[in-house]
Amino acid sequence: MKIPFLSFDVINKEIEAEVMIEFKKFFDSKRYILGEGLMEFEKKYAAFSGAKYAIGVGNGLDALHLSLVALGIGKGDEVILPSNTFIATVLAVSYAGAIPVFVEPDIHTYNIDPQRIVEAINSKTKAIMPVHLYGQACQMDEICRIANENGLVVIEDNAQAQGANCNGKLTGSFGHLNGTSFYPGKNLGAFGDAGAITTNDSSLAEKLRVLRNYGSERKYYNEYIGYNSRLDELQASLLSVKLGRLIEWNKERNRIAELYGNLLDGSKVVIPRIAESCTSVYHLYVIRHKKRDKLQEYLKSKGIDTLIHYPIPPHLQQAYRSLGVKKGDFPIAERLADEVLSLPLFIGMTEEQVSYVCHHVNQF
Ligand SMILES: Cc1ncc(COP(=O)(O)O)c(C=O)c1O
């Protein structure tokens, strides 16, 4: 049996007819930038996230970068973020001219450890950027309490967890500003690059609408040195189609994850652990094994595609040599980079496919 890591076959079939109708509407509208499709999607996505406002931008990296800019975070400021995140979280801080300060994750949930955040705060710290990694919400109540006590802002990186919650409150609704990504493989994925910022703050929402459009509210009058980062009108229209199914799709991801959990329980691999107060929307199903590379090779030989999220932690990337951090400085992130393996998980994945993967993981 051949099992891809990700497949759009079922999802695309399910939405094809609606997508074609939306495309025709978009085509006929003759308004291809900042049109009705975007306005509608922003309203729907804000409601989905439990936030008052959503501002569509070009991609997830821009969402995080523009959030930092809108909050006035820049040169000399320190921003706390997890040591095991995807590089985009760190790049956003660098683009803003601020300094990324890595904090280790909890070894069980892989999300940033609130206790360690406290230890990393100093007079230069301005913001905390928790990342809801692999789809599981971070301990947001705890993180927001720490931020409040220390006068810091919170920017959630919600690229991987649209629809997850912590104590019943949705990710993307905790922070002052929250960035998300609609990269095609995300739980809510576009047909190209796309992203959004969510917030409950009307003045920040207004500022971001201006910042994403050359820093201009009125055409040819510029308030800020802005950017061109608008969520593409066509992508927004098509995202609305998918958004209507996201709750159901997230449930299906949970069903697949539960089946994986049952079939891998008691095996030699470490299966995901979800904190009691949080939920996961299983953007990824990540296991751990000491002989990860050999396991990956073995699964490949059985026709099963897997990926590693992520093989090198940000502090060991060549791009970040200038930070002066070295191997051994963030042992949890380094261990995770050596041991994690993401198994196939996609909408339409059958029980038979999950069983086949588990059979071979257990055989290894
Ligand atoms: C955790 C995280 N942050 C940020 C991003 C950046 O999103 P994008 O690829 O849309 O720029 C991604 C996804 O790629 C991500 O997984």
Strand content: 5-15%
Using the coordinates shown, work out and report the CATH topology of the largest domain.
Aspartate Aminotransferase, domain 2
What is the subunit organization of this protein? single chain
What's the architecture of the largest domain, going by CATH? 3-Layer(aba) Sandwich
How much helicity do the residues have? 25-40%
What count of domains describes the coordinates?
2
Count of alpha and pi helical runs = 12
Radius of gyration: 20 Å
SSE diagram, text form:
Blueprint: H1 9-29, H2 36-49, E1 53-57, H3 60-70, E2 78-82, H4 87-95, E3 99-103, H5 114-120, E4 125-128, H6 140-149, E5 153-157, E6 165-166, E7 169-170, E8 177-181, E9 195-199, H7 202-211, H8 233-243, H9 246-264, E10 285-288, H10 292-301, H11 331-339, E11 340-343, H12 351-363
Parallel strand pairs: 2-3, 2-4, 4-5, 5-8
Antiparallel strand pairs: 1-9, 6-7, 8-9, 10-11
The protein binds pyridoxal-5'-phosphate (PLP).
Pyridoxal-5'-phosphate is lined by residues 59-61, 85-86, 88-89, 131, 157, 159-160, 181, 183, 193, 195.
